[in-house]
Description:
Layout: E1 3-14, E2 19-20, E3 23-24, E4 28-38, E5 43-49, H1 52-65, H2 73-84, H3 100-123, H4 127-130, E6 138-140, E7 143-146, H5 166-180, E8 185-188, H6 194-207, E9 213-216, H7 223-232, E10 239-241, H8 247-254, E11 261-263, H9 273-278, E12 284-287, H10 294-307, E13 311-314, H11 321-332, H12 345-348, E14 365-367, H13 380-393, H14 400-407
Parallel strand pairs: 7-8, 8-9, 9-10, 10-11, 11-12, 12-13
Antiparallel strand pairs: 1-4, 2-3, 4-5, 6-14
Helix pairs in contact: 1-2, 1-3, 2-3, 5-6, 7-8
D-glucarate is lined by residues 18, 20, 93-95, 188, 216, 218, 264, 315-318, 342.
Amino acid sequence: MIIRQIHVTPVAFRDPPLLNAAGVHEPWALRTIVEVVTDEGLTGLGETYGDLGHLGKVRECAQALIGLDVHATNTMYARISAIVGHTVTDLHGLTGAATKEKSIDRVFSPFEVACLDIRGKAAGVPVTDLLGGRIRDAVPYSAYLFYKWAGHPDGEPDRFGAALDESSVVEQAALLINEYGFESIKLKGGVFPPDQEIAAIRALHEAFPETPLRLDPNATWTVETSIRVGQELEGTLQYLEDPTPGISGMAEVAAAVPMPLATNMCVVTHEHLPPAIASRAIGVLLLDHHYWGGLVRSAHVATLCDTFGLALSMHSNSHLGISLAAMTHLAAATPNLTFACDTHTPWQDGQDVVAPGALRFVNGAVPVPAGPGLGVELDRDALAVMNEQYEKCGISARDDTSYMQRFEPTFSARRPRW
Ligand code: GKR
Ligand code: MG
């Protein structure tokens, strides 16, 4: 199964004004769709970030993979490493430090996923079977709550409404739980002073006493603030995600708070694992195949976490259905991934490049798609529309901070802030 063609298509889709430590989501989120085509006419799909610098690297590397067998992922990785070289510029949202290894892993990921899609289609089995087989039939996801404005300042209010205080956060949780059946809740924090976010968690705990809760302020708190908040929230949080920057700060907090700390910021590549494990900085790692080098390399990280007693959850950024399918196959085949995964799916509000039907939520969980490979098909009309949106939207890289500063000129994304 020799790779004959690779198509790389940037797309844009509507995104609500979700607030975070870096600012606010712009009206359009970007992704890149990768299609790998073999000599036998099989096509595999991958999805990755859409930021221009990353898109350029994905395009450049695609050329270098033509002629390789879809099983030759070690050679693919080596070729991509040689091209990406020492690039360490690719940050996206709040996904921790950029490093050389992480940059290579990010570019490699969509090609690896597409090759697994092809291998699954050729063998007539789902990708989960190529990762050791499913240990769960459906993957639970959490309701991912965001403080948000009612709509983008230059546009109409969206259907989710404003969420700027505890009661509207509780309303947002009820809306997402009603529509998707989620059984865990994550609140994106780092937006308001910590006491306001403590109040929101307490309100959520009161409204949904049986539902596990998480809070993620994306490293906006000092060590001292993190310890105070962690202690005040005793008994309400399943885990506290990235309260403070850096492995040593996280280790100090972890030693003083009652709940485990989780991260998608201070451990984002292999070199971070030894110091984080040695200092007991984290109890939970949020896996993300988009920057841990695809599905197989993420499964290896999961095994390492098992060895060293770290629990697993899964991180997300604004994404489409190819990513949701890949995340679901990985999580379904990872025995120690026992926490409900993150997903931004509700915020994408029905827009997708995949044909409807293969992905659905049942009681907050996505059943592993039944078809071979990833089990999702590209909707070519939707791809064309979303590519046109990309060309017209005027955004070429995510920049939550500059967008926020258009409306609040004094806004600063410095961390820690409180
Ligand atoms: O979408 O605004 C967002 C999130 O804040 C995202 O950028 C983070 O990377 O979801 C992520 C997280 O868990 O930190
Ligand atoms: Mg996080």
